[in-house]
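Here is an idea for our session: we take a single protein and study its fold together. Which protein we use is up to you, so please pick one and set it down. Once you have written the record down, we can walk along the chain together:
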Amino acid sequence: MRNNVLFCLVFLLFSTQIIAQQIAPEKIKEQISIYKNDLRGPYKDIRWFCTDGSLHQPKDPCPDNIGPGNQHARYKDDVEKLAKSNHIYLGQILTNTTNDAFLDVDNDNSRLKQYQIDKYLRAIDNGWVNQKSQFYRGAIQSEDEEAWGIDFYKWLLSKDKLLVENYFLIRQSLKDIPHSGDDNLAQLMRSQSKVLSDLYPSFMDLRVKIHAQPEINDIEKVKAFKIKHEAKLSASQIKVLDELLVTMTTFFKPIDLVSLQAKASIIKSTTFGETFKNYAIQNNHSNNASDLIQNTAELLTTLRASLLEEKRPLARLQLLDISIVLEDLIFKNAPLWQPETVEQLVSKVCYLGMATAATGYIEQHEWDALNLTLSANKANEATLGELTSVLQNGRSLVEWSSGMVKANYQNEVNTYTAFEPLAYGFIDDKIRGSIALHLGKAVGELGDFIAEESALTNKVLSIPNQSTVRGLNPGYAFGELVVVAGSPDAIEVSSNKIYIFQRPPADLKPIAGIATVSEGNMVSHVQLLARNLGIPNAALSDQNLDDLKPFNGQKVFYAVSNNGNVIIKAEKDMSAEERALFTKTERKSEKIEVPVESIILNESKVLNLRNVNASNSGKICGPKAANLGQLKQMFPEQVVEGLVIPFGIFRDHMNQDMPEQNQSYWQFLEAMFKEATAMEAKGIVEGEIEHYQLRQLETLRAAIKKMPLKADFIDQMEADFKSVLGQDLGAIPVFLRSDTNMEDLKEFTGAGLNLTLFNVVDKTKILEGIKDVWASPYTERSFKWRQKYLLNPENVFPSILVIPSVDVDYSGVLITKGLTSGNDNDLTIAFSRGAGGAVDGQSSETYLLKDDGGLQFLAPSRERFYNSLPITGGTFKKSSTFDKPILNTQNISDIRALAKTIRATMSQATNSDYQGAYDVELGFKDNKLWLFQIRPFVENKKALSSTYLQSITPVIDNNKVIALSKKI
């Protein structure tokens, strides 16, 4: 018995090791290539799967006494191995898959999402892994798959919580999971046009039209294309073209609403059923696209609200299926609604926005926070400011809807893209298949009109739909334009280039300028650095990014005005005034000096946070610890206890002998800067000097990480940890926050440049972490930022703030200024779930809290995963949904009260004449507010006051009255 137990333990350990060894993307790519050319694809053979769990040969059905069973393929061994090792499921067969396994809640519904990606890849790549096995007879039984789909939705739609939290995903899944015999014709039309343009590049212009703005008259254009090119087309190309024409004809065929209503047998007797019946009768033969879209958008809104009132799963399924048909109806008719006046255009934006919300691309509470209508008190006119508000809300809705798609599918798309690059197009396909595609066009038209009326016009090269570009931070730059469509994380950026990203990288090194599709949030470290340093920063749409790709590699001038209009022009088009902005003397004058005259380097004792205050900043420790100590005195119940390791302890350790160098660590550092100065005097180019410095710093950084900690320091850490934090060193998790003297200067924030270690418990890891934090100012990123903006970057001294972890429910940033309003009396807040919220560029829930007590919802969170801090140390990723806002009314009230106190008392408490805004990091645990940091909010005054930026910033009369009957 004992031997059996031992065998089981060994086997379990061995199995665990196998599962832990993930298969590399290159290997998966090889497997897929094999499956594409295999007549059986990812499948091994076909069997009967009987209800008692037994398997039978294809010609040996399950016996009657067992039950009918199902016949379908078995997966190849490598496919099953890939599922176990990487949680990647190729060629999924639904029949006999359990509902729980397919929904895959523990892995953020990954299997369901992978099934959808697989469907997409099959559509655009001739079956993908099933290229040759599409005709492997008996591998998949469509009637069994459809029956499974119905049973799956009966099970899934019985769960109110799942439906509320995952409305978007569930509704999207209906387009791909067989359950009613319907096809996703819109996706098929896009995929067939893509396949044809890949086979025959001359079709590309029509493909772009079908993807961007599909209309019924595109059918005639495709027919004309066939006639014109028929002599050059191969038989296979003609076959694809004919299939596309069939799909387009079917897709644009008018929907018989009365027949659709008649089929909705389960819901006929409900309140919604009666509403639907009346709608169908009134709109079945409507030729007025405007009325049809408005009526359908209102019905979709009613339908979404009716879903939870209806408790029968099959009735819910019928409602969702109707919802998808109605979405298609709006999608087809949106191009036919051609507004002629301002009023009609605003109405189109409003109703397409309503339909976008009703189909799940934003949450209900997000829609409730938006206002896409004009005041009913002014039936015939509106001010420019009121129209601009509608425009801003419309832009927000388009961005949020794209963010919903990305938040739900980006992880799986990234995983698949690593071994199948075609998967990258899945998200774009989902967005282009939504009503938000047409909403974006309508919003762009409204933006063009407002730009003309206000003279706030973007001039972004020659790209179309420029009104969707909006400035975030003022500034100007000149350099090579780099357009990055994929992940930015592997991109090595240069300080003299301008980057267009899908999303900003979390550890951005110095660059000349930036624009992003996903702006993250306006108070992230990246955004604060851009704002502080006058780096021009803008947000743009996915389509704008695509349109900028042809300009990749060109030298451009880039400017964002104080009011947010954007200029990007080719080098040859720069004016003399713009060329004069980029002189060596001006750039050098922007650098500042880190004050070191009052620094105290002989403080060799670990300090209690309670004994530190703002007056110590830059003297014995950095501003994080000094200001948090100040906050501890001002808000003792809302700030944790803590320890401070001052500059002096770091400097004392740097006096030790550095291995293999015959000098101390500090002397090695000084010698590096001295040599760099000598190289500069010899005329050696800047790049070569920087390369030398980075190599030396790499050596120093590695040595610091191995540096022996002095015994008296370790003894003191253990004693003070116990006395101040109440536990032995290694008993509770703590944060180790780098806190240098080069942060929070009057003209340089340094936000996020150095290391913070999250939730460290183990004693050895805490002590090793201290050295890691000491080494972090010498990383390439931190050094480059200092070199670019500081006159004495060698005089950096790190202290460390050690505070116990608080596993907050959500956390974020408060800026005691309205960033969007420009009002010093307003507040800006951004929050994300879990620890470290908002600061690392997450897409955060953002508000403008107005001085008059009002509130403007600026953006929702679109972060699917967040950090929790287990008591055992480290971080644990949890997934979130978006159906409820993060902050509640009491949280917002508490933040207002905190800001009021900070404004009233901070300067007096710190004996400071500082009157500017503050940047505060905070969080909530069980609705209790915790404070983690406060620092001055630094803006780039040069950019804000630049004569040139003022010259390109038009004065806007928001009170200008515009007749709603005005032609557009």
Notes: The CA atoms of residues 159 and 392 lie 36 Å apart.
